[in-house]
Structures are given as structure tokens and as C-alpha cells.
Amino acid sequence: MIDACGLTKRYGEVVAVDDLSLRVSAGETYALLGLNGAGKTTTIRMLLGMVRPTSGSVHVLGTAVGPGEHALWSRVGYLVETPAAYPELTVRENLTVAARLRGVSASRRVDEVVERLNLAVYADKRARTLSLGNAQRLGLAKALVHEPDLLILDEPANGLDPAGVVEIRELLRELSHDRGVTVVLSSHILTEVARLATRIGVIHRGRLVRELEAADLNAFLRQRLSVSTRDPEAAEQALTAAGFVPVRSENGALVLADAQSVREPDVVATVLVAAGCPPTRLVVEQDDLETFFLREVGS
Ligand SMILES: Nc1ncnc2c1ncn2[C@@H]1O[C@H](COP(=O)(O)OP(=O)(O)OP(=O)(O)O)[C@@H](O)[C@H]1O
Per its UniProt record, what PROSITE patterns does this chain match (predicted)? Predict the structure, then answer.
């Protein structure tokens, strides 16, 4: 569906995207995950031919992205940053224009996306009166009105309230499962990405620093054993004497990060009981997603 090779974009001294290659296959939901300024929007703009790469190439649906490839975009729906709409036209009129531009004449499709994006109440309101969240809904409706095979969305949850975030997640999931739509999206919200994506690309300072299957995400979350006792100093000594490497955490618990402690906490408990300082709490903890992400981007 998408084949981007060695994409680089420089703005003077700033390297917004640096030698980034990615492939997205049919049916995937691929999420570009990165902090503010990581290069997500620039990458997405290059995929869509809105920004010309300084070097590298992009193929979308087998076609090289470049001037004159109009037919290609009838199969692609996209939303980039603040969605643009004709401010004096109503929601329905905006969608009708978008549909016509994509060669779709059926007003049924406009009704369907109005319904699907919960815009019925606003259908006859001018676009300029919409809240940020509803403007985002209109942007998504425009991206979907021609039933594209590929959706490319920059921060689709932007401006939406928590219910709207869930709604859009469900919509994208449904499009992917029921209609086989391929989705490429960017986000800086790891928990959201983890719920939706089948594959995740972590982008940092313009570089794709890691790609992983969402199903493998758990394997990247480090585990450790956290032990509390009434006498942490004695416990630390006993564990050190037994060959463990306990580290005192801020809350006074001892943390053991080695694989054996995580696998066999009973061995740790036995050492502590024998030393006369039995554990009052013994728990295997896992990195949360934010810790994983910050570790990946090294900050
Ligand atoms: N037109 C431009 N001129 C100069 N610098 C730019 C331009 N567009 C982007 N940049 C710079 O390129 C870098 C990447 O920006 P980009 O908007 O792609 O990041 P992003 O990951 O989408 O960030 P955000 O989540 O904040 O939207 C940033 O340092 C940004 O300031």
C-alpha cells in the first residue's frame, strides 16, 4: 500500500525527517508514534505529496507520488493537521463538494458519513461555527466520503473529547475489520496507539528508531520484582549476600530487575524469611507504556 524509501526533508538547517523508510501492507493499521516535533506531520505530508522530499521516494498503491497523479487520490482519504473546510458552507455542503471532487455523486454517501461521524445535529450549520472537535469530525467525514482503500490521518484524535476519541477509535477499527481499509495514522498518545494499531513505528528527531508489531508490545515492557519489608537495610544486605542486586526505590521498596527474580519471586521470599525480614509486599511490576516510550526515545 505504501512504500517510502530513504525519505529526508530539510528546512535549511533543520532536518525534519531523516532517511526514513517504511512499508505498509494492505489491511494494516500502522501508527507513527512520536513526541511533538518528531517529524510525523512532515512524513505524512510527504506520503501525500504535499511536501516534496529533499531526497527519497514514495509509492502509494503502487504509484510514485508526484505531480499529475490525480487518479491515485480517489482511492486515498486523508486528514492533515487542522482540517480545512469552506467556512461559509454548511457541514452537508462541505461534504457534498468533497464527494463531487472525488467523483462521488450519491447524496446517500454524504448522509452515511454525517450519521457515522455523529454530525447530524450540525449538518446544516456553517463550518466556521463548529467546535475544534466537530471540525475534526468533519475533516474525517471528508476523508471517508469516497470510501477510500487507504486512510492517512495526522493526529485523528486531535481536539476530540474522551468520548470522541473512543468513537473515532471504534470507527477506524470497524473500517479496518469490516472493510479492509488500510490505515496510517500519527499520534503522540501511546495508549491510544496501542489500542488501535497493528504495527507501530516510533519516530524521534526525524528518524524511525523502532518498528514493532502491536502484539509484541508487551515483550518490550520490562518487568521487575518490587519487595517491601519492615527492615529494608537488613533485606538489602541479605539479598546482596545471596547474589541479588537490589536497588532501593524512592518509596523504600527494593527493586530486583534480573530475570530470575521476576520468574521466581518465591526464591527471593525464601532468602528474606531466612534472614528474619520477611516481605510485607512482593509484586512483579511492568513498565507502563509511557516508560517504554521514553526509554525508546532516550529521554
Ligand atoms: N515548513 C517548515 N519550515 C521549517 N521547519 C519546519 C517546517 N515544518 C516542520 N518543521 C520542523 O520540522 C520538525 C518536525 O516537524 P513536524 O511538524 O513534522 O513534527 P510532528 O511530529 O508532526 O510534531 P507535532 O506532533 O508537534 O505536530 C520540527 O522541528 C519543525 O519545527
Answer: ABC_TRANSPORTER_1, ABC_TRANSPORTER_2
